Amino acid sequence: MPHTLLSLNYDVLSYVLPLLSVHDATQLALASRAAYVLAFPRIIADVSLGGLYHKPGGSALSQLTSFCNFVLAPAPAWHGALEARICALQSLQVMRDAVRVRKDGVWKIDPSAAALLSAVIARAHTLQKLILWGSDALFTAYPDFGLSSSPSIHTLVLGGDVPPLSTLSRAFPHVRTLEFISGGGSCAPDWAMFTNDTIGTSELAAWQESLDRVDTGFPIIPLACPVRRVDLRNPLVSDTYMLFCAREFLRRTRPVVLSASTSGDLTEEEMCAVLDDEVVAPGLRFLDLVGDRCEGVKEGSEWMTRVANTLATLQVPLLGVSLSVTPSIPPMIMSSTLKPSGAPAPAHTAQTEPIDLTALARSIAERARSLRFVSLDLSAAPGATEGEKAWFCAFDAGAERRVERVPEAEGREMLRRMRVLNRWD
Question: What is the pTM assigned to this prediction?
Fold first, then answer.
């Protein structure tokens, strides 16, 4: 009897099927019912609805309606369990146009589409990641949106206009990762920064124990619950109000792991204004900082020294620190036909003398004596070489502090472990 794909043990197939593209899995599903059952989970695992702005109006809404009705309908007997369709869904992205209908010349949210989508979110017991664009309008059109959502949804990604935290925590109480997508109109909503009132603890009770990570471009001041890891993407600059908002956000979330970006010319006093005792004392263990738009290797190393001085001033009880830089925006190169006569040629960035990363790591370890791990990366700075990044173990040798360079593979593994540190580590 000849062996076919369908005769393989499922343990083997579990490694083969993820290698298929969705298109290839769809072609496989057309071969037979047995092939359909085998390929279906790969086809429907990751679904994106909408984004059909290039097609006639109503196409995206029709797509969402057809998809929701399909997965909510009982699967045929030969497919398996009645909920075999919806239970294969693992990741779902819904764009703005997927729930909109044009009425009287104006695009509006269709409440029936929002209700249908909410039903899918409630019954998809294997759904792990949900991405919503313009979610504020969904809750406005259908106030019960998301209620009784599947407890399997652990990652909630939001873009565009976002509803208040109390609404989100009530609809998605089991979320562990909350992410705000940059771009697409995802700027800080008024409720996130322009308020002095913290949401009551009872309104965020569901997140007090479950929320593990928040990834955002802007501070979310009303979020008053502990979060193990905070990623603050937008660079902190020399602006008093922005620094105040960042400090308040970190003070209320009390992160164990903090990833943030700062302007390359941020002073030690300004860093201390954000990372003060109320922020770091409760348990910050790993700090991942990026110096934004450093002019060169020298400026990048000076920024790292300022960070080290800040840690020395605050006596931060860190176990690890990772410092890296991003390059400055290069000047626009004009075409020779547009360049005015007599204009100077653009200056090329000269390669500078390499920085002694071991000495820099030792200096950092001496200023923050609790450190056990240091990661330095200047390779992105103009004039740097690819080799200007290194990983170090820091330890006490009597009264001295010493650092030992480790191989890249070991350094990256230590960096990974630092990023998953918990409050009790």
Answer: 0.87
